[in-house]
Amino acid sequence: MIKIKLIVGFMFLLNVLTQAQAHHSFNALFDVSNTISITGQVVEFKFIAPHSYIQLAETDDNQTQVIWEVETTTPGMLSRRGVTPMTLQPGQSITVTGNPTRDGRKLIRLLTITMPDGQQLQIQ
Fold first, then answer.
1. How many distinct helices (H) and strands (E) make up the chain?
2. 16 pLDDT band (50/70/90 cuts)?
3. What are the strands, taking DSSP E only, across 13-92?
4. Quick check: helix, strand or coil at residue 90?
5. 101 vs 3, 4, 26, CA distance in Å?
6. What's the rounded Cα separation, in Å, for the pair 69 and 27?
7. Which tens digit of pLDDT belongs to each residue from 26-68?
8. Which pTM value belongs to this model?
9. Is residue 22 scored above 50 in pLDDT?
10. Regarding beta strands 120-122 and 65-71, do their DSSP bridges make them parallel or antiparallel, or are they unpaired?
């Protein structure tokens, strides 16, 4: 009976550790050695757990609109950095800097936001 409890406990612990590692493996998804900047208009700001997201519409050189997903941190961390659910509004022009994905998706991990008035918010 003790052996079964140990096995079940070990399997549970292994499952929790695997999920935690997968959730926090930014280096696997994002190229943290590279930083890019994107200027565009806020389409939507999702102030949700576990990570908030900004949808940003950028106009490329061909005048085509490209939608970027910007992965931020937790709502609690954003609040401590001065970002509230009302900070980013649809249509607002901002510049974000962050780490791009390794596979070229239109997704970045947010580092900073530059607001329309020039105020820079350091997120990471």
1. 3, 6
2. very low
3. 36-46, 53-59, 65-71
4. coil
5. 44, 42, 9
6. 17
7. 788 999 999 999 999 999 999 999 999 999 999 988 999 999 9
8. 0.78
9. no
10. unpaired
> In this structure, how many other beta carbons lie within 10 angstroms of the beta carbon of residue 27?
11
Q: Please state the rounded mean pLDDT for residues 100-124.
A: 96
Determine contact, residues 116/93, Cβ cutoff 8 Å: yes
Question: Cα–Cα distance between 119 and 113 in angstroms, integer?
Answer: 8
The closest alpha carbon to 106, from 68, 58, 55, belongs to 68
Domain boundaries, the chain: 1-28, 31-122
71 - beta bridge partners?
A: 53, 109
Mean pLDDT, all residues of the chain: 86
Q: What residues contact residue 75 under an 8 Å CB cut-off, 6+ apart?
A: 47, 48, 49, 52
Q: How many other CB atoms are there within 10 angstroms of residue 49's CB atom?
A: 8
Task: Provide CATH code, domain 31-122.
Answer: 2.40.50.140
